[in-house]
Sequence to fold (180 residues):
Amino acid sequence: MILNERDLRHEHVLNVARQMMTAARTAPKGKGIDVIEMALITDEALEMLSKKMQAIAEEKGLKFFLRDADNILQAECLIIIGTRECAQGLNCGHCGYATCDARAKGVPCAINSVDVGIAIGSACAMAADLRVDTRVMFSAGIAAQELGWLPDCKQVFAIPVSASSKNPFFDRKPKEQKPQ
Fold:
């Protein structure tokens, strides 16, 4: 049997993405409380996410959303990672408030923010170990959050994943908005 790498690449990248999600799940969490949620995005869902990013670019005038909207379509898949809101009760003050109870509604618990960052770092480290290309994109994460793909999650980030001869997520040119 002869198996050409080009024929196997897509399934391989999906398997790497699954391993990245495992790495994120097993990453350390504040007080051992897991508030991380994740999903694997492929195919037509990638196209839906790209369209949402284009709409956000038009609505808010953020050109880099257009660049990133095109860029994620070069990925084999994309992982979204977010955190549910859960004050850790440490009264650490890292959120800017003296106590967890004093924290204003909508202000994220700093420990939750750290947890999602560590999970992202673990996922990207796994990707690097397995030699696939990634880039952390808050733009695609915002679009996924607006689409409600990780219900009850705030601070959603996206990690597109690719295995091609050149990393499509770097050396990117700015995308121009279409004239109105």
